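Fold this complex.
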Amino acid sequence: MERDREESVDLAQISLRPLQLSDVDDLMVWTTDEKVPKFCTWEPYSSKDQGIDFIQNKACEFLWSRAICLHDRAIGFILMTSCSATDQSREKSVELGYVLGSKYWSKGIMTYVVKQVKKVAFREFPHLERLEALVDAENVGSQRVLEKAGFHREGVLRKYLFFKGKSRDMVIFSVLSTDLNHQD
Amino acid sequence: MSNLDLSKISLRPFKLSDVDDFLLWAGDDQVTQNLRWKTCGSREEALAFIRDVCIPHPWRRSICLDDRSIGFVSVYPWSGDDRCKADIGYAVAGDYWGQGIATKAVKMAVPQVFNDLSHLVRLQAFTSPQNKASQRVLEKAGFLKEGLLRKYTYFKGNIKDSIVFSFLSTDEFPHDD
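Structure:
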């Protein structure tokens, strides 16, 4: 990852709001960039229809989601899904996912956003016990985001996922409702 | 300590005729306390459980001593994109604890499971941090302990920590001791 020293970002200009259809052109910037979904299950988008489909049909299916905005322009996306979708015994757990345009990497933006969303999660879902995130073992940048945002690294789940033709070791992180009482 | 000849331990599918032996251990709270199973309260319940759950199960075997059921090993594969992984569980009748039977059964099951489930890459197991005996079974069977997952799951009405272990299709089987 390159450090773009010419353009630092005033984090006070970062905001979260629901994704709208009018964000589609901004969304296409990060969804067509090969670097961005490298560790995601999805392939880079090749048509605006995919962007429209995501905003209209997919974004609303998440338990919670927001566009990450700089000066109210969407530069990324953050979401939460309920773990009970795949496992009924895990209804008190929620999984965090996020994506950011590569131009905005390494500026502390994602860490800043995750810190906010961590607090939002336990406020929005008062019965939530555990917020977790799974990161590809090769995605060091994203692991650093979670560590700096106060998540506990619990271990590496070997060959936990299989996508884009290969098995992935996933690092699992968590933050508990009880952790928050001892943090910022 | 063990006088039991472990070569008498075998794995096979459940049969309805296992019901009386099944009830001995599936009806024992000590055995089911670490399982998601409800303790079987009657012969009828046991029969229904064998017929409706054990027999149609994707991969469940009776652990047998001289062909009599004294426990089970189960593997539940995930579906769709997640069929690269499956969860393993097991239990042995209380009278037979401490003799290496569960370890032997798991060691027997692992190569069979990877042979039977074609997309399987990762066999995983979740144990309670308090259940040291079960953790030892997995370690002796060659599983790798990956970490402690805090407040991971709801178990019989309470939120619990889980220790996660895994055995991959590429892992080496441990030597028989």
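The first strand of chain A starts at residue 14 and ends at 17.
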